[in-house]
Amino acid sequence: AVPGYSPGFKKPPAMLRLKRKRLRRSEPAAAPPPCDAAMRPHSAPARRNPFSSLDNAPRAAGSPQPLQRARRPPAPKEGCCLLRVFVVQLLERVSEDKPAKRTEPSERTDILALTDDLHLPAVVLEAPSSPRHEFPADWSIKTRLLFMSSQPFTWAEHLKAQEEAQGFAQHCRATETNLPQSIQEPKLSTELRCAFQQSLVYWLHPSLPWLQLFPRIGADRKIVGKATPWSQDEALQQVLMSDWSVSFTSLYNLLRAKLCPYFYVCTYQFTVLFRAAGLAGSDVITAVISPTTRGLREAMRNEGIEFSLPLVEESKTRKQKNSEGNLQAEVANILEECNSTEGEEEPAPSDDDEESFSWLEEMGVQDKVKKPDAISIKLLKEKHEVQVDHKRESLALVKGTNTFTLLNFLINCKSLVAVAGPQAGLPPTLLSPVAFRGGTMQTLKARSINAKARVQLAYEDIFSLEIVGPVLPHSLHSLTMLLKPAQKGAFSAVLYTHEPTAVFNTNLDSASPALNKETVCKDLPPYGLHPKTLDQLSQCPTLGKSSIRFLEMKDYAYTWRS
Fold first, then answer.
1. Which of 268, 350, 468, 490 has a CA positioned 20 to 30 A from the CA of residue 367?
2. Cβ(183)–Cβ(485) under 8 Å?
3. Where is the stretch described as Disordered (predicted)?
């Protein structure tokens, strides 16, 4: 025998024939041939490439390859929803050089079914409202607006230097712009283009161009890896906080002097909205904080700040009304017990919680049983209050002169600034519609996009205008007032909400809204806003704990969904 020779060795051709035999045996029985199979010439099966993978192995006729099956676009249906097709194209960032895959929905598909594609929160949208000439005030901060219309947005493109400067001047001087109901040539309207620039302006502090300072809640991923020289420098942190305190105090003074309508304080844990007297149906300065925790509320109580939890109280009131009969019976029982023990001496309350465990000493097991400490007992008593932490129901309302105490509390609060992490040492973000000391003028980013969407057998033009940035309530209303004449009273918008601020639409003064409206709207200062915008913001909020997600105008009338 030849050394190293294996009798079981086979040449490659023989090995390949053996593999083909095994493959044929493992294949399922073929389907019966069609009737016309006898008339077709018999063709031998294609030989498999031995160097190919299993994915590109020869398959039966009519069975597409896996990659081809995945890449094959679905057949378009007739009567496609033009608006949804365009939104899908826009969000996928379709470019002319490299078209992307897209599906075309049926006619029954609504634009609001796109919440998943638009990266909106998974919320149950309410039924659309009845058409009205004005939509309710939305006190939440929008991170992005997407306007769509069949009319082009060329008037919002490539503003001239003079138009941009005029828009800034109109904003600083609080110039009121009144446009006609319809503009025939929006692109040639200098007044419209200047007003558009004016509506994009907002004021920010601090200003760090290399960092995105809004939103601050959940922004660690966007800040991590960026240059933060103050994170390890305590002296620099003190300088930043001192400068921030001056800007914060300046904003509050403007608010109290009725020169600023509202402003936001955005921390890494919660957001505070200060509103001037006369707005949101209140005749005094108000501040709403959301979300809050038991620790924050306890610290506010220790500083003497009087506040309320409107949503918690509303929930308690609702439960009391539902069980009114049971409550009356319980009250009657309590009164009977009080009458029966009227002559008895009531034991004085003890401050020592350990006395309640004196029965353990009587049994002689006081050392064997672990007694809860004072903190655990306190947490058990505050169980219901802790359950609302970090939720919408934890919204805290501060009114009147207590807002000044809240100002001092926030300036001196050490937990206002993160101690560790990417946001360590970074002061909270201040957002305002008007100028203030230390504030920096910023503008929202706007761009118009033109695309074509397939409708049946033809393509139609769809135009959109995208606004990105912290869109404040007055900016949303100002933009819609400009789109109304420019787009001839027909447009729609998808609104992206910063979720922690959606609860700011809760009506906090529902006790006597009619009285508030009469007393508040009288001699209301302009606050540097358009009269129509001021009238909208002065109304009592009606959206509850939600915000507007979809806004549409048809024939100069609004409908919306929240």
1. 350
2. yes
3. 1-75
